[in-house]
Amino acid sequence: MPWSESNDDEVFDLVAAERQRQNTTLQLIASENFTSPAVMEITGSVLTNKYSEGYPGKRYYGGNMVIDEIEDLARSRVCELFGADHANVQPHSGSNANMAVYLAVLEVGDTVLGLSLDHGGHLSHGSPVNASGQLYNFVSYGVSASDERIDFDQMRDLARHHRPQLIVAGATAYPRQIDPVIVREIADEVGAIFLFDAAHIAGLIAGGAHADPVPHADIVTFTTHKTLRGPRGGCVLSTDAFAKAIDKAMFPGLQGGPLEHVIAAKAVAFREAAQPAFRDYAAQMVANAQALAAGLADHGFRLVSGGTDTHLVLVDLRSFDTELTGKDAQNACDASGITLNRNTIPDDPRSPFVTSGLRLGTPAVTTQGMTEAQMPVIAELLARTLRAHDDPAVLAAVRADVAGLCADYVPYPG
Ligand code: DSN
Predict the structure, then answer these.
(1) pLDDT(5) > 80
(2) Number of structural domains the chain divides into
(3) For residue 299, what is the domain's CATH number?
(4) Is-contact 32 366, C-beta < 8 A?
């Protein structure tokens, strides 16, 4: 029975509308990017048809001779890119990568240190509403009130007091580099395993803009679709000592059949990230974030930690407008064609659903070819939006200017 010949216009039209949205509005969500046509082509390939539970050479289904080569290629490319002993490229997401690590190295109820969610951590670092926080005894460290940077003295004190089995470093809304050497020292002092969650900064590491945590951490997890610019998915790197336990935890422990079409696209992205041009891209993401931060400060926005040395900026809206919430600001930005997300700031007086902050990132606009020259323009567009956040005429005018800017940097023409 052949496939239906009639096009599913309903879905295809919606995809076309989303492409139009991405082409004509600014994408400033720090965890998003524009992946390459090659990555998208491979993600949509015949590999989606194949079941391949298991690992290369040890599958539970026949017909995996080509798939084995693909997964081996992805594993060897990513090990070379980051200098790792072992890679598991099967996680469907960063959360799954983290959960597989917990399953591999912890017993239920074990104690873990992680960055608190409202200071920039991630749900899978022990939030009480996430399985990580429900299955394990997470103790949160945070940023210090004085400089809003990770308080390593607090991390050390908590480690000495709680003797955790695991220390998790890494963040989703933290604009500063995290020194893996200090975390290693603390982990060694208390005999803890050290996991570095590099979800946001994997592309900065691959491109040489941030220090590689692989030589210092026992295990490194990351997502492949943020600064790394690959397909949506996750990855775990580890020393040989943890390889077997992590592979077993991933499959059959946590996931079933791997997404080999995505794994092949990860292999493409790993190769792209190994090219010399990717080093320029990584450096430009950081330069753009710093220029954006400076532009926003000029308009009266307070920047958490005073700036950034990553691809993202965390804005405290209260210095700009005490009444303006992150939720209302995000809605106004949606109307003016600036896509970003509201975010809690450290010790936010408002709820995580409302928030007092915004998170902005430069991975996508940098892929489009924007540089430091465009960042003050974006800061101005944001300030105009938020100064008149309930005035539809101003929002429409900003939206037209956003479309004008994006017209010079169309990510997916044709
Ligand atoms: N949702 C991701 C982010 O935006 O940072 C984290 O999982």
Answers:
(1) no
(2) 2
(3) 3.90.1150.10
(4) no
